[in-house]
Structures are given as C-alpha cells and as structure tokens.
Design goal:
heterodimer; A: 116 residues; mainly beta; four-stranded antiparallel sheet; globular; B: 110 residues; five-stranded mixed sheet; 9 strands
Chain lengths: 116, 110
C-alpha cells in the first residue's frame, strides 16, 4: 500500500506570495490532518479534514486554509506569506474512525517551505 | 489533552534495550498513550499506543503503570536506525489533533 504522498518536497517563495501544498492520503483513509513544524514551536496542529469537511482547527490565522476533495486528497493554502511561515508542513492520514481502539496517524515526508 | 514530560535526551548502546520514560500524571480515563518517533527531516512515524494494558508490536513494547500516570517505551534491541526524537502523546481514542511536546532525542551509539 502506498504511503502518504506530499508534493512538492521543497518550495521557495517570497514574502507576500501565496502557496498551495498537496497531500495524497493512504488509499481508503478519509481523514487528512496538517501540521506545521518549526525549530522554535515544534509540531503544531493546523487543521483536519474528514469527508471534505473541516472537522478540527488549530490556532493559526486565517491565512492558513485547506480543503479536501472527494477522493480524500487534500490541499493547504497559505496566503500573503510571511518569513515566519518558513517551516516543514506535514500531512497525516488516518481512517478517521478512531474511537475505542485509538487511532494511528500516518505522516508524509513533508513539504519544506522557505519564505525569503 | 493531558500534558507529558520526557527527558530531553538519552543515549543507548547498539544492541541493548532502550527504555524511554514518560510522565503523564494528569491523564484522563479515556485518554490513550501514543508514541511516535521522528527521524531527522522525515515525518513522524507511529510506534505504538495503549490505554491501560501493556502492549507489544513488532517495533516496541509499551509499559503503562497501574495508576496510568507514567509509561515506558521499550525498544528491545536498539540499532543505529533507531536514533530519532521520540514523542510521548496523550490523547483520546479518536484524536487526530495531537499535541507534540519536545520529545526525547534518543541516540544509539555503536
């Protein structure tokens, strides 16, 4: 079974631009979560989508948005980029049901975004 | 979600067992203990999780104390490839919004 695929692997943008990152979850998984990782703040939760609906949202400004398509693929968008948005953006997929048995997240390798 | 406390770093000799402790004294009855690890520049990798009982899989064993206030992740025969940051996370069973702390940097020495 293929793992979680994130594209592109590396991205360089300048301040004020916008960027779109893509994530293809494991086949059959309906939940996609996004995380930001920086040296200063560590791994922080951005948002989670399940069946094309945002189910949870972390404490990030509205410049960070996402969406999920009917095939469960997800994209996240960051508008009006700031220097502080430079980070590794990670996507994780799960079957989204969790509950009694706990839920495992499967992470992709991430997109390294550099804002100049 | 309950907070966790882990030592910032640990060393382990290759071939020996690595025992990584985690304190979670405020854990709630419906919260699981999850362990993930992150090898440099890669996404975190799920290792194991448990609620009350000790758990074992092909990667590791998880020992949870009876009062559930602490746990230990055991890598039975550490290899150089096990060098990574290990995160102990407490969350409900359906949680996909995980709170990652600073973790423990495990270095396996040859």
């Amino acid at each position: 079974k293929a793992g979680v695929t994130q594209t592109p692997r590396y991205l360089i943008k300048t301040r004020g631009q916008q960027v779109t990152l893509s994530c293809s979850p494991i086949s059959g998984h309906r939940s996609v979560s996004w995380y930001q990782q920086t040296p200063g703040q560590g791994l922080q939760f951005l948002f989670e989508y399940f069946s094309e609906t945002q189910r949870n949202k972390g404490n990030f400004p509205g410049r960070f948005s996402g969406r999920q398509f009917s095939n469960s693929r997800s994209e996240m968008n960051v508008s009006t980029l700031e220097l502080g948005d430079s980070a590794l953006y990670l996507c994780a997929s799960s079957d989204g049901t969790g509950g009694w048995f706990g839920e495992k997240l499967f992470f992709g390798s991430g997109t390294q975004l550099s804002v100049l | 979600d309950a907070k966790t406390t882990q030592p910032p770093s640990m060393d382990c000799a290759e071939g020996r067992a690595a025992n990584l402790p985690c304190n979670h004294s405020t854990i709630s009855g419906n919260e699981y203990v999850y362990w993930y690890r992150q090898i440099h520049s890669q996404g975190p990798q799920y290792i194991i999780h448990g609620l009350k009982n000790n758990e074992t899989n092909e990667m590791a064993s998880l020992i949870i104390t009876e009062d559930r206030k602490s746990s230990t992740l055991i890598l039975p025969h550490a290899t150089l490839r096990d060098t990574a940051v290990y995160y102990c996370i407490v969350a409900t069973g359906s949680a996909r919004q995980l709170t990652f702390g600073s973790g423990t940097q495990l270095t396996v020495l040859p």
